[in-house]
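Batch job 17 of 40 flagged for manual review because the log was empty.
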Amino acid sequence: MASNLRHIGILMDVSTGEGREMVRGAAAYARQRANWEIVFPCFESQGLDPVNIPYWCDGLLLRPLKLADQEACLEFKGPKFGLVWRGIGSRGIPFLTTQGKEVARMAFRHLRENGIERMGVVGFKDSGFSYVRSRSFQHCVDEAGLEGGEFEVVSPPDRSLLIQWLKGWKKPFGIFATNDMLAREVVNCALEAGILIPGQLSVIGAGNDDTFCTVAGPTLSSVDPGAYRIGYEGARRLDLLMKGETLPRFGERLPPLGVITRESTHVAFHDPLIADILCVIRDEAPRGLQVSDLLERFPVSKSTLNRKFRESTGKSPSEEIQRVRLARAKFLLRSSDLSNEHIAVESGYPTPKAFYLALRADTGMTPRAFRNHSGRADR
C-alpha cells in the first residue's frame, strides 16, 4: 500500500465554514476511499505574494479566492480539480461548486413562506459569489412584485451606514445576507438599532457556518450549500483524474441541501394564531401531523382555519403540511444514505408509496433519480 501512496495538496480558503466543511469532506474521502496523504495546511497567501504551491504533490484540490493564488495554481502541471468557478473553472480547470442562484432562491422562498412581503439583500461589493446570490435574490423579489432593496458592504465596512439602511425599512421585513458572517453583522446592527429579531426583522444567511449560526443569539437561519458533499465529491473527481480517467462533465453545480431554520426567522405573522399554527406544522409535520390535530389543539373551526391560513400564507394548512414533509424528504435524500422506507418515516409519510408519489408529483423523479441528480455521494 505504501508504494501506492499519493500526496494531495489542498489549497483552500478556510476563513469560512464552507471552506472548512469542504476540507472535511475531502479528508473523509481520503480516509474512506483512497490511499492519500494530504499536504495540509496549505492556506492562501498573506499579502500580495502567492501561496507556496506544493508542486511535488500528485494532485491538487483547489478553492483559492485571491488572484495571486489562482495564478499560482495554474503553474501546477499535475492533475488539479477546483471547488469554485471564479478563477479556476473559468480558466479551464474542471470544477464542482454549489448552485449560487438556487441558494438565493431557497432563501427567498423561506422568507416568503413566513409571510414576509418586504425583503432586501446584503452582499459584498466586487465579490463573485455574492454578486450571483444578490442578483438572483433581487430577481425573485422583483418577479414576485414585492418591495426590495440592496446594501453592498465595502472593505472596511461602515456599520453606521448599514444601521441607517436597516432603520429605513417598514416593519416587518426580511434580509438575506449572502454569507453567514455578513448575516451575523446584520443581526448585530439591527439589535443596535433597536430592531427586534424575530418579530420586526427576519434574517437568513448562507453557508450554515456553525460558528456564526449558533454561538450567539438569536441563532441564525441559513441555507446549507452542502459544502461537505462538495469537498467529498471534488476529491472523488480528482482521484479519477489521477487515474487517467475522463470526467463525465467538465463543470458541475450541485443544488444546496436546504434551509436550516433557527431563531432569526421564526414566523411573525400579524395573526398570532396563524404564527402559532405554522410553528406547529414546521415542527410536527415530519412526525405525521394532520389537519385534524390542529383543530383539536387550537380553538378554530376548519373553515376559519383554512380561510385565515390561506390569507396569510397563500396555501391551505394541508398544503403546508405536505410542503414541509416533502422538504424534509428532499433534504434527507440529498444529505443521507437512508433508505426510502426510512426517509418516508422520518418525513411523516404514512407509507413509502405515499412518499414516492409526492416526490414524483413535485419533481417528476423517483427517489433514486432525485438523489443522483442532487449529486449525493455513496460514502
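Reviewer: the log was empty due to a logging misconfiguration, but the result itself is present. The chain has three domains: 2-98+227-255, 100-225+259-265, 272-373. Unflagging and moving on to job 18.
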